[in-house]
Design a protein that fits this description.
This protein is an alpha/beta fold and 215 residues long. Helices cover 32% and strands 11% of the residues. The protein has a four-stranded mixed beta sheet. Strands 4-8 form a two-stranded antiparallel sheet. The chain is globular, with a radius of gyration of 17 Å.
């Protein structure tokens, strides 16, 4: 999360958030507060601020997280194993194979709904605008106008944007479809893309501290 006088950026995992944070730091010397992945629930004095962030296709999102953990911690899981340990009751069994940093090893990362990052203590969405990661280029232009900044973003076409489709089996597809059903339905995603606009009038079943990290 990055805050300025009249706006707040929420860094949802796997939505180019680190890149965006670095841009704000480079151009305006702004640093994230509380935690990279803080939520609306964590924000004090949010009245009259433009609150925004990005969501991503849950099928691509889960693949991206798997690839990130493969590169960062050399996890030995296939994608099916990854989904099994995260969503099919195998997490305790999997930790012995999961060489994560000690401060993260007791948590399941980012298994909760993306929708919840934008919700307040009443479990209702309090975002001013939610953008799609898949529309990063045009979204960034709109954001710059709304928050009155002038930061150029070097966005290249994502040549491998459909790579996630190659790793899914029926098993992993069913698991992600089940456990990410809220985001899929709410944000209009399916396995191949998205349709419609992103709503702001919604609620979730849970919000709380350290939302991104589930013990």
């Amino acid at each position: 999360m990055i805050k300025k006088d009249n706006w707040i950026y929420l860094h949802i995992p796997r939505t180019a958030g680190s890149y965006i944070e670095n841009l704000f730091h480079k151009h305006y010397d702004l640093l994230y507060e509380v935690d990279h992945h803080s939520t609306v629930y964590d924000i004090e004095n949010k009245k009259d601020k433009f609150i925004f962030g990005f969501v991503r296709n849950p099928y691509s999102y889960e693949w991206s997280l798997w690839k990130y953990c493969q590169g960062s911690w050399e996890i030995p899981f296939t994608f099916d194993e990854w989904c099994s340990y995260r969503f099919d009751g195998k997490s305790d069994e999997g930790y012995s194979k999961y060489p994560m940093p000690s401060n993260e090893a007791d948590y399941d990362l980012y298994v909760r709904e993306q929708a919840g990052y934008f919700c307040d203590e009443n479990k209702k969405c309090a975002a001013s605008k939610i953008y799609r990661f898949e529309q990063l280029r045009e979204s960034w232009d709109d954001i710059q106008k709304r928050i009155n900044t002038d930061i150029k973003m070097n966005i290249k076409d994502r040549k491998h944007k459909d790579d996630y489709k190659r790793v899914y089996s029926d098993y992993s597809y069913d698991l992600v479809s089940k456990y990410k059903a809220k985001d899929i339905e709410l944000f209009g995603y399916d396995f191949d893309g998205f349709t419609g606009d992103i709503p702001l009038d919604y609620s979730v079943d849970y919000v709380g501290e350290r939302y991104a990290y589930t013990r």
